[in-house]
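Lay summary. Proteins are chains of building blocks that fold into shapes, and those shapes determine what they do. In this project we predict the shape from the chain. Here is one chain we studied, written as its sequence of building blocks.
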Amino acid sequence: MIRTVMFDLDGTLVPLDYDRFLNGYIQAISLCVASFVEPRQFIRQLLASTETMVRSQNPAKTVRQVFWEDFEARIGLVDGLAPALDSFYADDFPSLRQTLEVVPHPKAREMIEGLLETGYDVVIATNPVFPMEAITERMRWGGVDGLPYAHVTSYETSHYCKPNIEYYEEILDRIGRSPEECMMVGNDCLEDMVAGDLGITTYLVEDFMLDRGPDRREPDMRGRFENLVQFVESPEFRAM
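And here is the predicted shape, written in a compact code that computers can read:
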């Protein structure tokens, strides 16, 4: 019986093209720290340390710890960089919403509220490569902030990233659910649908679908966001 629904954020609950978002984010953050680190050097190290973070299999370190240890090993300690990044997320990151012209899906919040009201737990299962402040901000973009989620993954608390299967195992452990009690909803054929390897029911949202080639997983169900809304309101879903 499904008791918990996990939702990816970017391209799923938040209607945006992830590649366009990532390009805008990288450009904006590199300009913000330009007085501390040459932008092209910063971008190279940011991407390299993010890759190290994504590949990490160390249960003793959060992905935040992995990122910063690798980043500082590559670039050294830079006075003033950390406060500049804090300022970026507080002051500059929110403006990306206007740049990307993100408009919340009119049914997203209503769908989640309906799930919560009928007794389901809801998890925001976004890839934890960003600090919580940036994740909360993108939840605002999608109009799904401020709700009583069972868990929201972020780089401060997660020890694994997608598509590592341990990412989903860690969520299950945190919320006290078995795979059979959960459904994962996302737009990435690998990062989100890999949850099915554990026995989690999967639903692929096709509006901003990401297909990463031969490692893709086939979802149990698929459709556009409007189809998802109809499905979670249906007797078929309630009977699962």
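What the prediction tells us: The beta strands are 4-7, 121-124, 151-152, 182-186, 201-205, 221-223.
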